Amino acid sequence: MKMVSAAKYAKAERELRAARAYGLSAKGFYDNLEVEKVEGPQKHLFIAATSDRGLCGAANSSIVKNIRTQLNDGKQDLEGTKIIAIGDKSRTGLARTHASNLLLSVNEVGKRSLVFGDA
């Protein structure tokens, strides 16, 4: 059993070593990025990723409740806050109370083939 674990660990370590260059170059890109802070009102974007249907009720509702709580606590400027809803459950859960904040709604992700119009 230990030999199998050692072999799997060695394989994962080899794969990680090969991918490390990509990670370091991406890190170097972001470390050297010169970004200026934009003055003015802050804008916020929430991305709610839920399922379209199925037996994920607790997960879906907790995502919607969390976003709804953060929007209703008064700390967020609702005018500068937008929501992207991925999945039908997030769209229906947030459209009732925050329809004006919905920027984009996407459903059936991964179920149908992409076409040029989707891009």
Automatic annotation (TrEMBL):
Localization per record: Membrane
Gene3D superfamilies (UniProt xref): 3.40.1380.10
A Pfam family it matches: ATP-synt
InterPro entries to which the protein is assigned, alphabetical: ATP_synth_F1_ATPase_gsu, ATP_synth_F1_gsu
GO CC, alphabetical: proton-transporting ATP synthase complex
Superkingdom, taxonomy of origin: Eukaryota
A molecular function GO annotation: proton-transporting ATP synthase activity, rotational mechanism
Xref: PANTHER family: ATP SYNTHASE GAMMA CHAIN, ATP SYNTHASE SUBUNIT GAMMA, MITOCHONDRIAL
Protein family membership: Belongs to the ATPase gamma chain family.
Protein name (record): Uncharacterized protein
